[in-house]
Amino acid sequence: MSHQYHLKIWRQKNSQSEGKFENYSIDNIHSDMTLLEMLDVLNQQLAIKGEDPVSFDHDCREGICGSCSLVINGNPHGPDSGTTSCQIFMRKFPNGSQLVIEPFRAKAFPLIKDLVVNRSAFDRIIASGGYVSVDTGSSVDANATPISKIAAEMAMDSAACIGCGACVAACRNGSAMLFVGAKVSHLALLPQGDPERSRRVQNMMTQMDDEGFGSCTNMGSCAGACPKDISLDNIARLNQEYMRSLLKG
Amino acid sequence: MLDFKSHIPNGPLQDKWSNHKFESHLVNPTNRRKHTILIVGTGLAGSSAAASLAEAGYNVKIFGIHDSPRRAHSIAAQGGINAAKNYQNDGDSVQRLFYDTIKGGDFRAREANVYRLAEISVKIIDQCVAQGIPFAREYGGLLSNRSFGGTQVSRTFYARGQTGQQLLLGAYQALERQAHEGRVEIYPRREMMDVVKINDIARGIIVRNLVTGELERYAGDAVVLATGGYGNVFYLSTNAKASNASAVWRAHKRGAAFANPCFTQIHPTCIPVSGDHQSKLTLMSESLRNAGRVWVPLKKGDNRPPHQIPENERDYYLERIYPSFGNLAPRDVASRAAKHVCDEGKGVGSSHLSVYLDFADSIKREGHDSIRMKYGNLFDMYQKITTEDPYKTPMRIYPAVHYTMGGLWVDYNLQSTLPGLFVLGEANFSDHGANRLGASALMQGLADGYFVIPVTLPNYIATQSIVKVDTQHPNFAEAENEVKKTTSQLIKIKGTQTAEMFHKRLGKLMWDDCGMSRNESGLKKLLEEIPKLKEEFWNDILIPGDENQLNNELEKAGRVADFMELGELMARDALERKESCGGHFRTEYQTSDSEALRDDEKFCHVAAWEYNEKNSIRHTEQLNFENIHLQTRSYK
Asked: Where are the domains of chain B?
């Protein structure tokens, strides 16, 4: 089935210039196309007309690399829950409807061009403590420490975060608590993460604040927008870990 | 004259790596920080190498095309990572993993490299568990395993269907830790444009800053490429959109030989193509073949929905043809079998280019919840893409390009024929022969990065007299000018067709004549078609905008230009290898029951190509099998 759409897309040449919405009409869009494939079609048309195609981040197109980062009709990663921008199919949108496409907006994610933003603040948060400090080669046998299946599964639930930043884009305060909570939880739930538990949570929280992310007011928009269904429990656990670190040092 | 000495250590197979480690020269801890290592690529191999070398005290700079190292395509690996732990007490050992990998690769890999890989595999799992990788576990708290194709033991460790993601995050976190310590500098959104040689040794790179468009120069004591495979030469593949061959191809043009370019892996279980608009293909993990049964209708053109086709009118062809391995036949064998039944007219779906992967029996046997626990995210992914529910109706799958066994030639030390240039992971050719077994790519990437390069690179540094150079050396300016020239030449053409259009056409040519099966006339035709396409490209490519900004079309055009040259080399390599082995299936060379027919007398070698603009030169490295007897591969 072939459909047509009205697109309203945020265009901005670079971080210095002012941006604005541009309108485009597009037709012959097959319902089995993904949203990004629809943008590919638009970009080919723009290129052939000699216009600048729309820049957007994308790579694996199977929902795991965390590159794609579009706000679609006001929702980070679009209308479906548990879905990245690249996994949205055009069959979702009725023929003739309008799609408003914007970048992930947050103070800590400065815009680079069009729909591309700089999310390196997330890397710096991980660098401040989101790891277990083990050098290569110094480990014991993998089965030396049994870990309960439940703990391993819960750690995996948190570790599934793809670092896309939809939680930040969805939050009216631009808070990164869900992202930080997921990493702190993943490592706190496992015995390997235990020795650095206090240091980790304090350093990551400090870095998060330094990067300009806002505070959490427990609205839950972050979890609603998360393409990997990272739950709000991670924020509760983050608060708990932080309090624990203050009490236990 | 390129040096093709493999530098395989002497002594019995079991002792080669230990002896080599002992004999390798070391660099004093206080001297290590004086040496700068440039690493290109941030996937499993690149990140693990960067973290490990920095931990040892070297000064590391790492470059990647993504906005963060964590986005590299290793992230998408689903099923698992092999290791010869024998935790399941089912007869596994280093020797058996070695044997399975050599046999799986159809006897076209080096024994010594593969044995080392099997030996190191056990340490990788220890390292990853210590990092906090949440591998699947049993109720007793110990690690869980599953089976993969081409083996009869359970040696695959996994983290749901996201094993690559978890392993990459482990390596990425180790890398970020070193960045925090100031031992690694991470350069995101940079694309390598060229290798800089000084006195015929790799001493630096030119990269393009993808945000500003500026060209940047970096000098170092050695260059490490870990830039992945070249499956995107086919346009449609399971690779990520930005996965490309440009770094390895440009290194090839500077003197690094390219080995076995025609060895590409077509993965049997991918979601079938739905139409011309498709931009990439999605893999369904091989681990699904543990629970799913592959079948087609017995009758040609049977258009009934699957549940209306009774048991006795179905052909479970893998179980029928390969009773001892059944649905877990290796990838190349399973892919060809799927093509074969579809060619016979038994394919299903609207295109008739797919086969069923049916979970009904497993769901009946183990229960819905157990299947959801093991494969839930894959089932959800399938349903999202196709709108069909695999709990109720069988999945439809078809083979797709997935991995490239070929790559830059490296010796036992992972050094290419360009001295000072090391190549890790999928970018090299070393361990998988003509076909890679499932769950072995993650193993190889991490073996190379965590455990091999931290031994062999210091040995190189300790044994060379490396003079200090900086980016003011005239060779840097020269390389940078060449890049500038090519870029502005591309931009100036202002033709009528985009890079995407050329890429699709190249992909179609490659898939038709250098894909799942090849033959002389098709390959010869391909060798006429590609140069024509290349000429058209250099006269008619359209790149909007200029080079001084974020310009995705320019990036794509540069990569497609390299893919075309590489595609030509692949076709030549496939034409010259007059035998069938692993993923390379020449229709002229097959057994009476349509299996690959090797020619060990003439082709038991690695073909390593030396670049020449007019006519690349084919060199060979003989493969000697001293520990495993050369035999016809059988999974029956």
From this structure: 268-400, 480-610
